[in-house]
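SEQUENCE, STRUCTURE TOKENS:
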Amino acid sequence: MRQRLRSPVGPLLGATLALAAGCGGAAVPTTARTDATAAVHTAREMDAAQQPEAAYHLELADEQLAEAEAHIDEGRMQEAERLLERAEADAELAVALTRRARTARDAEETMQRIEEMRERHL
């Protein structure tokens, strides 16, 4: 009776595949990273840092981006993606708050001009 020799390649390959699937198997969230970075850039371009309420959300977005990068470096892609989505949302909120502040300021200026015109014509 012949004895069959077992090759260590099979179990080694299986263990390697299991390890790869178990940790770090997820891809880097490139789309979420790009979207969050673009949203932060837009907020900066609109000078969101100059409007207090918007500046707070821009700061949160910056912190979340940094934390997400750390998670990516650690191979924790799901956590990174969630943080990137939050960063994008906070940056978009900063943009909206900046627009709202500008609109309110413009409306106030328009009302002042209207009042000045009324006073001149009365």
Q: What stands out?
A: The chain has a mean pLDDT of 86. The chain is about 80% helix and 0% strand.
